[in-house]
Task: structure prediction
Amino acid sequence: MVALSESGGNAAPASSTVGGPSKPRAEALSAEKPPRRNDPVPDPLPYLLDFYPQEDPKYTRIAPFFDALRKGSFTTTRCEEDGTLSWPPRVTCPVCRGDRLAWTELPRRGRLYAFSAVLGGAPLGMEQDVPFVVGLIDLEGVPLRIFSRIAHTRYEDCHIGSEVELETFPLPDGRVFFRFRPAGASSPKA
Amino acid sequence: MSALRRVALVAGGLSTFGVRAATWSELVQEAGAAAFRDIRNFSSKDVDSLFVGAAQPERLAFQSHVAPLAAELLGFEPWKILQRTELACASGQSAIRSAYAAIASGLSDVAAVVGVEKMNLPSMAEANTSMANVLDRTWDGVHGATAPPFFAMCAQRHMLEYGTTSEQMAAVSEKNHRFANTNPTAQFYSKQFTREKLLKLPMVAPPLRLGDCSSMTDGAAGVLLVAEELARKYTDTPVWVRGSGQHSHFHNLSGAGSLSTWPGLRAAAQEAFRSARAGPKDIDIAEVHDCFTISEIIEYEDIGFCAKGEGGRFALDGSSDLGGKVVVNPRGGLLGCGHPLGATGVAQAVEVLQQLQARAPAARQVQGAETALVHNLSGSANVHSLMIYGREN
Ligand SMILES: [Zn+2]
Result:
């Protein structure tokens, strides 16, 4: 369909140069969809297609975040020099660049500042979740607005200001992660 | 500023944008033929530097070290600066800004720029995965953050705070698709979209519908920038870089702020206008980053073409159309042309060159255009990059 692959005819280049006359478009516009493959998705995904962070202290210096999460507590780091509260957890302070950081507990509840839903075009490993809701959450009582999946709800049932609460969930390989859900919702088995 | 040399944009061209039956390397060759083939007095040997704008060749074409590959494909053997620039959706403008800096500083005299992206893969889920690593993959992408839900939240807040409507967003899309109908290189060159039709397209990330979103696109574009004393060797009508600005505001979405105002854009625009000794009223043409319709609306406001909150009305009343206050995205924008990440910023510069040389197709030529602005955002509108070009320096 591209001129370069066409045999015979007046093969116009599939390109346009400034100043030249407008050339005929060489590519058929019917070709809006490329041939797609439906390869089986490997499970587990290869390391560089895996979205979830490494949690083991062999790989990261913020392993305590995940240890706390496994026990149901949501934490981040605060600088002991100047009090800077960071999200996500860090190993140095962005303000003073010192490394005297302490773990601090974050509230498990907050309210939706904004939200939308992913109805298609999801990455590998998330396609089975579509449609799903995501949002920015103002955590209760701290100056942090963080982004999260909002599980166990539909876009139509969410509102700006809706109260949400933290939920943790295990990954198949033993790691743990978090997301939010409408406050008071029970967590169905994954 | 007086220590800097003046820099001219003297030539440019681009491949057809779309779902292309062509590889990354083939797109680069097409852009090379379009941009560098018919330049007066030009020899490949003149090119001392090459800047390659490419966002994700590692993920989308399984190729790194792409600057020397592009040099070989284009027939250049640069001996001053060879580099690839990556700034996600602004990778192309980043390459141009690097070429500008190299020439202005005196390190380079003749710099070629090519921007390219191959995004339509047999496995689109892999391409989508690579779009989700543009944001903070570990903390935001992991939750399913890609561009559509992020800009959907910006739209939700803008609608809530300023009363912006879906009809106003459709007006942006209709205008840019109509301009794309004048541009044979555009992905949607031969597709017609009325506002009524756009408002019936399926939701992608509510409140954004399909027609509010730019596409995954294959394409490449090239330009040539040279030092002032060489400009008239290559063309009688050079276009001058008058200024630029850039601002990085946050990366993790916890820093995104209100969503309805983009402080990084205000800061970058202020610096671009300061360095160009110009203001929003001086701009005849603006090629702005309409990755989504709401983006263009917020950009009208935060660049300063209209007051805060007036962006939707600015689109609907024709202020950004031919004959309006400023003609925005006459090329067809990202909405009409498609958005091959690395190529977009370079293709916008090609349009500005064409317009300021008064050589654009009659249907979209802005009569008497003197000054043009190019804007790209990248990621979650956390970085803004702007350049201002003029027919006169
Ligand atoms: Zn500190």
Q: What stands out?
A: The two ends of chain A are 46 Å apart (CA to CA). Chain A touches chain B through 64 residues (CB under 8 Å). The beta strands of chain A are 15-17, 75-79, 101-105, 109-118, 132-139, 145-150, 163-170, 176-182. The helical segments of chain A are 63-70.
